[in-house]
């Protein structure tokens, strides 16, 4: 098995022979079971849109901190807006993760039924007025959100095929989902930084799948259990990184891995990335799939709604002490 996440061509999903599509399905199955990470080419997100979203992210993060702070994520309960530098500290050993971010999602009016019901992560976006071109910023993030959401549903279609999930259940899971887009900026780590310095400390993602656009800087690492080592996820031009999260692990009774990963930016330059966290419909009940249990095997996790799961994970990580990650290596 290769140490690094495989690079998979998604083109057969849209067109190609049945044999090519079956190879695609098996490649995704293997990646989800062995590492929980893969890179995806020919995924359908236009290259110019990838360039534009990274450019708009850079433009926002160049603003003075006092302007960015005016869009603070903690100003309301919608999980939207700015997260300051070192606000998170996943490993609890340094001064906080060396990154800042900006949260976006489905832009919903206050009278939307999901917002009125208080469902997690549903509400209006905060679109900054101080960027170079506010209209372009809004148009770019909204178009990118739509494109990556479409890809997420396509990927879930493949995963549904792998785990025997019927189309009706897939539709219910993907309808009006909790899905968060996050602009991330990692300043370069100083040359004399402590060995404990992290762009983001080792962690696993909360939801079903994550789709990450990263620039060419590098720094993302994933834990390879087979070799007991951190391996670099080297950026592939035009590709996105896909990984399965904790919710998918619960759903599949640990068949699909939710793996530890981290960022260490020793490049000497700023790093930008745009993760998209796809978590599913708030009311969907996630319970162990029969197809993911061996004969006589019990479910390892009890049923839980997507909303309750996400509320709990965010409370652990953002509302107080972070939940301790499974730590096979002492986070060295």
How is the secondary structure organized here?
Layout: E1 7-9, H1 11-14, H2 18-34, E2 37-41, H3 47-61, H4 65-69, E3 81-83, E4 100-104, H5 113-116, H6 134-163, H7 167-174, E5 177-186, E6 200-203, E7 209-214, E8 220-224, E9 229-232, E10 240-244, H8 246-251, E11 261-263, E12 271-281, E13 285-286, E14 304-305, H9 306-318
Parallel strand pairs: 1-2
Antiparallel strand pairs: 2-10, 3-4, 4-5, 5-12, 6-11, 7-10, 7-12, 8-9, 8-11, 13-14
Provide a descriptive summary of the structure in words.
One of its GO terms (biological process) is small molecule biosynthetic process. There is one protein chain. It contains 9 helices and 14 strands. The C terminus is likely disordered. The protein has a single domain, classed as B-lactam Antibiotic, Isopenicillin N Synthase, Chain (Jelly Rolls, Sandwich). It starts with 6 loop residues before the first strand and ends in a 14-residue tail after the last helix.
Short description:
The chain is of the alpha+beta class and 332 residues long. It is 31% helix and 20% strand. It has an 8-stranded mixed beta sheet. Strands 6-11-8-9 form a 4-stranded antiparallel beta sheet, with no helix packed on it. Strands 13-14 form a two-stranded antiparallel ribbon.
């Amino acid at each position: 098995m290769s140490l690094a996440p495989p690079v998979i061509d998604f083109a057969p999903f849209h067109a190609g022979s049945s044999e090519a599509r079956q190879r695609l399905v098996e490649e995704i199955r293997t990646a989800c079971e062995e590492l929980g990470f893969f890179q995806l080419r020919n995924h359908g997100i236009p290259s110019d849109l990838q360039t534009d979203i990274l450019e708009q992210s850079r433009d926002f993060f160049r603003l003075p901190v006092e302007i960015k702070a005016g869009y603070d994520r903690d100003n309301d309960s919608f999980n939207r807006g700015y997260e300051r530098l070192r606000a998170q500290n996943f490993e609890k050993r340094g001064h906080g993760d060396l990154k800042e971010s900006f949260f976006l999602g489905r832009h919903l009016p206050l009278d939307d039924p999901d917002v009125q019901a208080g469902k997690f992560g549903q509400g209006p976006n905060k679109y900054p007025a101080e960027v170079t071109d506010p209209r372009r910023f809004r148009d770019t993030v909204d178009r990118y959100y739509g494109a990556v959401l479409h890809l997420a549903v396509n990927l879930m279609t493949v995963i549904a095929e792998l785990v025997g999930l019927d189309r009706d259940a897939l539709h219910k899971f993907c309808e009006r989902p909790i899905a968060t887009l996050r602009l991330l900026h990692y300043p370069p780590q100083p040359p004399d930084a402590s060995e404990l310095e992290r762009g983001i400390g080792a962690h696993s993602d909360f939801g079903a799948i994550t789709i990450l656009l990263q620039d060419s800087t590098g720094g993302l690492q994933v834990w390879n259990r087979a070799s007991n080592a951190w391996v670099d996820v080297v950026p592939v031009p035009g590709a996105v990184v896909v990984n399965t999260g904790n919710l998918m692990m619960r759903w599949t009774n640990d068949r699909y891995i939710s793996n530890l990963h981290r960022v260490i930016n020793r490049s000497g330059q700023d790093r930008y990335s745009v993760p998209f966290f796809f978590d599913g419909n708030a009311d969907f009940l996630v319970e162990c799939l029969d197809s993911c249990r061996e004969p006589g095997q019990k479910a390892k996790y009890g049923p839980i709604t997507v909303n309750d799961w996400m509320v709990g994970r965010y409370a652990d990580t953002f509302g107080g002490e972070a939940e301790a990650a499974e730590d096979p290596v002492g986070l060295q």
